[in-house]
Design brief:
CATH architecture of the largest domain: 3-Layer(aba) Sandwich
CATH topology of the largest domain: Rossmann fold
Structural class: alpha/beta
Number of domains: 2
CATH superfamily of the largest domain: P-loop containing nucleotide triphosphate hydrolases
Strand order of the largest sheet: 6-7-8-3-9-10
Radius of gyration: 23 Å
Helix content: 25-40%
């Protein structure tokens, strides 16, 4: 019996220990004018994207955010001005060679349907002539990183995956050659809200571990606030309306355009800046895959719990059962028959609350690096945080 008790020390909250592996991107007076158009799509843009940070590009339709993104990997060639990555002009390389050193993820994952998951992820490392053993190891590591079991998913085809799984594979493929820069164009726009929240959490967890430079286009201000270390808000012609931290854009919008774009309820949006790891997590009795169900239920009941939480050998949550369900199981299985309510520790308080409202357990499981279980956040903890935050905010 491997059931553990809350008397044991909880896993420490993981903190970023990896060195920054991203590269600084600098736009210097960049202009993009399409043939036949007199007005530039991007007009004299200058900005710096810091190494190892997530910068969200956002603005109204037609403002030039996607054009700006695609100039970084030369899918669109700048008309004038320079873009450098780690001090090197992007035009100093052949365009194809450049793109092989920059990850690119778009909506839906854009996987090749005739290739397996493994073949999709291995494509760019193969083009770069990596050793086959290194490629196989890289595929396995990346599938683990994006929360997909390699033994189950490496030989599947895209049509055998859900939308969220396809997007995870798309992110893995974008990271396959270990690029310093990852470009993402509306990456989570084609999935349902719950899957979108989980993919956002996954990206933050990955970024905490890898610290790449990520440039992401979105139309969703809430997503920009949640994911961005900095937000670039563009007006028509890719003019910079404000380029700042989410906190500054919410509390000190540069002008009326920014204020209108952020929208009403900016004080409520401030809750999107609060993360689950700011809350105190409960440390319940947990059980392991293969444990006797009735014994796990008895241990949970003795601790005053109404549920049994099951972890696998790597401390990842795989089941969350009522005492009655667990009692009827001879052995606790590797997989649950239903989705488990899980959020990453870097998820927002709003996300945790949304997950709880969709859960029957009155709380949500919190995970850290590589989906390791950290504890449980309860509805009471969330509402208490919201209340204390509201009371401490200036009226």
């Amino acid at each position: 019996m491997s059931t553990t008790t809350s008397g044991q020390p909880a896993p420490e909250k993981d903190s970023p220990t990896s060195a920054v592996s991203g590269a600084e991107i600098v736009f210097d007076n960049v202009v993009k004018t399409y043939p036949g158009q007199s007005t530039p799509a991007v007009d004299n843009l200058s900005l710096t994207v810091p190494a190892g940070k997530i910068v969200m590009f956002i603005g109204p339709s037609g403002c030039g955010k996607t054009t700006t993104l695609k100039m970084i990997n030369r899918l669109h060639e700048p008309t004038s001005g320079t873009i450098t990555i780690d001090g090197e002009d992007i035009r100093s390389k052949n365009a194809t060679e450049l793109r092989r050193t920059i990850g690119y993820v778009i909506q839906g994952g854009s996987l090749f349907p005739h290739m397996t998951v493994e073949e999709n992820i291995a494509l760019v490392p193969g083009l770069l002539k990596w050793d086959k053993k290194d490629i196989a190891a890289r595929v396995e590591d990346l599938l683990e990183l994006v929360g997909l079991d390699p033994s189950r998913y490496r030989n599947r085809y895209p049509k055998e995956l859900s939308g969220g799984q396809q997007q995870r594979v798309g992110v893995a493929r974008g990271l396959a050659a270990d690029p310093p820069v990852l470009l993402m164009d509306e990456p989570f726009g084609a999935v349902d809200p719950i899957t979108r929240q989980r993919l956002q959490d996954e990206l933050m967890s990955i970024q905490e571990e890898l610290q790449k430079t990520i440039v992401c286009v979105t139309h969703d201000i809430d997503e920009a606030i949640k994911l961005g270390d900095r937000i670039l808000l563009l007006s028509e012609g890719a003019h910079v309306a404000q380029y700042d931290t989410p906190q500054e854009i919410l509390s000190n919008p540069a002008d009326e355009f920014v204020e209108d774009f952020v929208g009403s309820g900016s004080s409520l949006k401030q809750l999107s800046l609060s993360r689950v790891d700011e809350l105190e997590l409960q440390q319940p009795v947990i059980a392991s895959v293969g444990d006797e169900g009735s014994a796990a239920a008895a241990a949970a009941r003795a601790a005053g719990q109404k549920d049994v939480i099951v972890l696998d050998a790597r401390r990842r949550p795989v089941g969350w059962y009522s005492l009655g369900e667990a009692t009827r199981m001879s052995r606790l299985p590797q997989e649950s028959h239903e989705d488990i309510s899980v959020v990453d520790r870097r998820a927002t308080i709003n996300d945790a609350l949304d997950s709880m409202l969709a859960s029957s357990h009155g709380g949500v499981l919190v995970t850290g690096r590589r989906d390791e279980f950290l504890g449980v956040v309860t509805f009471t903890a969330v509402t208490e945080h919201i209340r204390s935050t509201s009371e401490s905010s200036p009226s």
